[in-house]
Design brief:
heterotrimer, A alpha+beta (94), B alpha/beta (393), C alpha/beta (192), B: 393 residues, alpha/beta, Rossmann fold, six-stranded mixed β-sheet, C: 192 residues, Pyruvate-ferredoxin Oxidoreductase, domain 3, two-stranded antiparallel sheet, 34% helix, globular
């Protein structure tokens, strides 16, 4: 069995752990905003699978939700949606 | 119960590894290292050793496999020589910079080309900037002891660096000598279970070696330098506790012979120091005040210990079994750099490079060289000098 | 006192193993030893050189030597090949040959002074004890018995014990017997 013990003297290790928002609110980088038409959505999960920053959730009953705090507006979800249920519109701010 | 048997240097290392109870061994065959992992494979086959042997297609993969297993929490071992070590060089850096404890045996053999299987230290010293702790043995018993100690040093939380243990090919690797194997239970209690700073085993998501900004990266590397300094204390305490438990203590980072009141000191690394000590025995009988320092640990470089012994010396003769082409021997470079941390008045330091590519340097050869060096210093040589002595019979 | 012993044999006759067994025997008498081959590529049938050092003190010197206290020849035809000319047998040194009776002339060897020559028919002993590996009589253990008879630096009991330890009880026993027989059958041929 292996015993885990922190190195002495608080030395840094070349390790990373996944956390939300490691690069800040990346939603502020967005110039185009994805908008979902849940009536066209067939819950195929393509947008959730392809989203490079993991901010899309598909819930069969509730439809598609996007976390706009971290969505960078790349448009991949629009591109992969087979039903054109996602469209990109210019970002106008909150 | 401890037991004394005739073992080659390779088998001595294999028996030490067996006692350390590794989980994973991966290696690729190369002369003169192969008998180490062949022996370990036999031990696994017969059930004496419960470990996984990963067969790989190259040395690069051998160390990569060990690295991956070690990151996941396994005690690992590999061994190589010469071209194999050079081929795995990239991964050698990975292990130390990731602060992953592991042990590797380096059975020294010179570097191609031309094809040559005989030993010098060029493959070993070539690894000096990798962040590994680097130890070198003088006989098979020490090869055994150092290999076992390497696991303890490597897994110390104030160190967490990989350790390589060097022996000269053939001169030790294929030569049978008496080796005492300590009691298994005693070793188990002393070495204990594997310790490491983190594991990546899938239970908690983690990334190893992500893109890291210059300042953070520098901090990580600075930690290796600190760990090297810490390791000096650990190496010494492991040496002395091992001595108390198993009866053999070597003096820490260096071993000294006849150093008290020595006006002249010869310095060397590895098994040819045996011939050097024998030459110094004779010179002592002939009335010359000369001693020998054997460097046991090349990294961390034992500058404090060397300074303590050399501060009163008139002449220092450094024998290097490796050459940095266009410059001189690596031990000499490090020694001079180490000593000027303490003084601006260096003793006369001479660097002799010899024994390259497996050329045998006998006790008589050392006697002749030392005698002529002493005479040069006595007749008013004011500066050190460098010479590559090619012995021909 | 340090003794340096040279073995001349052919690949497959067990010269290197013999040097290792001698070290094991030294351990039983609290002595020190080194046993090693010439560091090169060994092939079955090719001339092979092995080396041993035995001493009552730790041995510091390493590597090959070309001046010996005792030279053992596993195949007497190697002498005619002129191989022994490459080494110097020390004054009052010993030469042991595996042969029924050997004609050794000073032309074939390189000696410092006088040399004591011994012979033993180790091939016959090996054949009679069934010590044949891949068609070759393995004479190494018989020659070990002869060595400690001619140069009593270690007892025959230690050598026999070392043979069993090194080779294991199954094949060790007939090899032990070979050493014991050669110890008794060694013949002194005189000074050369």
């Amino acid at each position: 069995m292996v015993k885990i013990k922190e190195p002495e003297n608080n030395v840094k290790l070349p390790l990373s752990r996944p956390i939300i928002g490691v690069a800040g609110k990346t939603g502020l980088w967005r110039t185009m905003r994805p908008i979902v038409n849940n009536e066209k959505c067939t819950s195929c999960f393509q947008c959730e699978i392809y989203c490079p920053v993991n901010v899309i959730r598909v819930e069969p009953k509730l439809g598609v939700t996007i976390d706009y705090d971290y969505c960078k507006g790349c448009g991949i979800c629009e591109d992969v949606c087979p039903r054109s249920a996602i469209i990109m519109i210019p970002e106008i701010g909150e | 119960m401890s037991k004394k048997i005739a073992l080659t240097g390779n088998y001595a290392i294999a028996y030490a590894v067996k006692l350390a109870k590794p989980d994973v061994i991966a290696a690729y065959p190369i002369t003169p290292q192969s008998p180490i992992v062949e022996k370990l494979a036999e031990m696994i086959e017969s059930g004496e050793l419960k470990a996984s042997m990963i067969r790989v297609e190259s040395e690069h993969s051998a160390l990569a496999a060990c690295f991956g297993a070690a990151v996941a929490g396994a005690r690992v071992f590999t061994a190589t020589s010469s071209q194999g070590l050079l081929y795995m060089h990239e991964v050698v850096h990975w292990a130390s910079r990731a602060r992953i404890p592991m042990v590797m045996a380096v059975v020294s053999r010179t570097i191609n080309t031309p094809w040559n299987i005989w030993p010098d230290h060029s493959d070993f010293v070539d690894q000096r900037d990798t962040g590994w702790i680097m130890a070198y043995a003088m006989d098979n018993q020490e090869a055994f002891d150092l290999t076992l100690q390497a696991f303890k040093i490597s897994e110390d939380p104030s160190v967490y660096l990989p350790v390589m243990v060097g022996i000269e090919g053939f001169i030790l690797s294929h030569t049978a000598m008496p080796v005492e194997i300590p009691d298994e239970k005693l070793v188990d209690d002393w070495l204990g279970e594997r310790t490491q700073p983190y594991v990546i085993d899938g239970l908690e998501p983690k990334g190893l070696g992500p893109l890291t900004l210059p300042e953070d990266t520098e901090d990580i590397f600075y930690g290796i330098q600190l760990a090297m300094e810490n390791s000096k204390r650990v190496i010494k305490s492991v040496d002395s506790e091992y001595g108390k438990l198993f009866g053999r203590e070597y003096g820490g980072l260096i071993s000294c012979y006849y150093c008290n009141n020595a006006k002249y000191i010869a310095i060397a690394l590895g098994s040819w120091t045996g011939d050097l000590i024998e030459a110094v025995n004779t010179l002592r009988e002939e009335g010359y005040p000369i001693g020998v320092i054997r460097v046991r640990f090349y990294r961390p470089f034992p500058r404090e210990d060397l300074w303590e012994v050399l501060r009163g010396a008139k002449g220092v003769f450094v024998f290097d079994r490796a050459i940095s082409f266009g410059a001189w021997g690596p031990l000499f470079t490090d020694l001079v750099a180490g000593l000027i941390q303490y003084t601006n008045k260096l003793p006369i330091i001479v660097n002799i490079v010899a024994g390259i590519a497996g050329v045998h340097v006998s006790a008589e050869d050392f006697h002749n060289m030392l005698l002529s060096l002493i005479n040069r210093v006595e007749s008013g040589l004011e500066h050190g000098y460098f010479d590559w002595v090619r012995i021909r019979r | 006192m340090l003794y340096e012993i040279l073995f001349y044999g052919r690949g497959g006759q067990g010269a290197v193993t013999a040097s290792h067994i001698l070290v094991q025997a030294a351990i039983y008498e609290n002595k020190y030893g080194q046993g090693f081959p010439f560091f090169s590529a060994e092939r079955r049938g090719a001339p092979v050189t092995a080396y041993a050092r035995i001493s009552d003190k730790p041995i510091l010197r390493r590597g090959v030597f070309s001046k010996a206290d005792l030279v053992v020849v596993f195949d007497h035809r190697l002498i005619q090949l002129g191989l022994l000319k490459k080494v110097l047998i020390k004054n009052n040194g010993i030469l042991i040959v595996n042969a029924r009776g050997a004609e050794i002339s000073r032309n074939h060897i390189n000696v410092e002074g006088k040399v004591h020559v011994y012979a033993v028919d180790a091939t016959k002993i090996a054949e009679e004890l069934g010590l044949i590996v891949a068609g070759w009589p393995v004479v190494n253990t018989a020659m070990l018995g002869a060595i400690v008879r001619a140069l009593p630096i270690l007892s025959i009991q230690s050598v026999e014990k070392a043979i069993i330890e090194y080779l294991g009880p199954r094949i060790g026993e007939s090899n032990r017997e070979a050493a014991s027989r050669a110890y008794k059958e060694l013949v002194y041929l005189g000074e050369v």
